[in-house]
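Supplementary notes for students who missed Thursday's class. We covered one full example, reproduced here. Read the sequence, then the structure, then the short commentary at the end.
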Amino acid sequence: MISVNEILQTIEMIDQQNLDIRTITMGISLLDCADSSVKACCEKIYDKITSRAERLVAVGEEIEREYGIPIVNKRISVTPISLVAAGTGAEDYTPFALALQRAASRVGVDFLGGFSAMVQKGFTKSDLALIRSIPQALAETEIVCSSVNVASTRAGINMDAVAEMGKVICETSKLTADKNSIGCAKLVVFANAVEDNPFMAGAFHGIGEEECAINVGVSGPGVVQAAIRNIPDAPFDVLAETIKKTAFKITRMGQLVAKEASDRLGVPFGIVDLSLAPTPAIGDSVAATLEEMGLERCGTHGTTAALAMLNDAVKKGGVMASGSVGGLSGAFIPVSEDRQMIRAAMEGAVSIDKLEAMTCVCSVGLDMIAVPGDTPWQTIAAIIADEAAIGSSIIKRRQSGLSRPRASPCLMSWISGAFWARHR
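Structure (token representation):
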């Protein structure tokens, strides 16, 4: 039975510590939308998304009002378009991105992910067509997100794909220069991409998933920070146990919302993704949480160890709370979205090299990092290659239901945020 104290704690988490449901994401399979005609395929894609997700936003708002839980985003993920559009033989996949944009705008969601390709072992003609269409597609759309998986533990790294993505990032930056190169912030390069990720820009609906599913992403770095603050000078075992208990509470709230959305929409419940995803808001920082654990400044010696401990405790707490924890589940370290991380970078405490070391122990990779607009594509490709090597090579013990991919004890990694190369 839920006690009055637990209810009051949850209210405090929401009101004062920035606890929220970061996203309700509906995954939709588009495999049955394949057609030899580009126009017909696009029409099928539009019709299926608008029929399946017609009530997604309304239901999310209903739950938000009834339970008083902030639900920040309502999103859609779809089958990688390189698979859906392959039968058309088209060389330019921008029309498919525009169809996704129209459908997403019609149902009122914040973002739609799945303009994607899985090329860890090699390219099909369709994969190459999609990858080479990414810059124009992201320039002509506002809420469509793209991702490309270039490596996996089993297949290794597709270095040709790494080179292609270096060029794609630079071209995307140029084509969206009038919008601060925002196109790059909607693009992710993956190693060991997961099929049930609810977070953008890397979400897509994997071919191993159901016809349609509800996946929920919950976030609360401020809640964890506040819990740690209440136990100053605690030994490591107490610190870890406190983080686990906090993660347990956060995950239970996420599962409640996921099941409610699933029941009301008549769509199967997929997973809860417990990820400490920071925002620029005060008190919503992963870097600040690490500093609360005892670091003088995020980026100093001991940062990687503190992050490893935080990530491990969050995962263990999540798996105690739900048998359906999945997605990315762990701590995010996006530089330009974390107030304390920005401060650390400005003070020189955090560099790309240090961030790369941190990605060895957390759930994600280099995320939302701005680099000069004249950075050559070869440099960006080399950074992608380094991160892909980490993501496809490091072996780590994972809790059941949490690892990515679930059947393999390996690290998932990504390059996100474009390396926000700004062109003036």
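Commentary. The longest strand covers residues 20-28. The chain is about 45% helix and 15% strand. If anything here is unclear, bring it to office hours.
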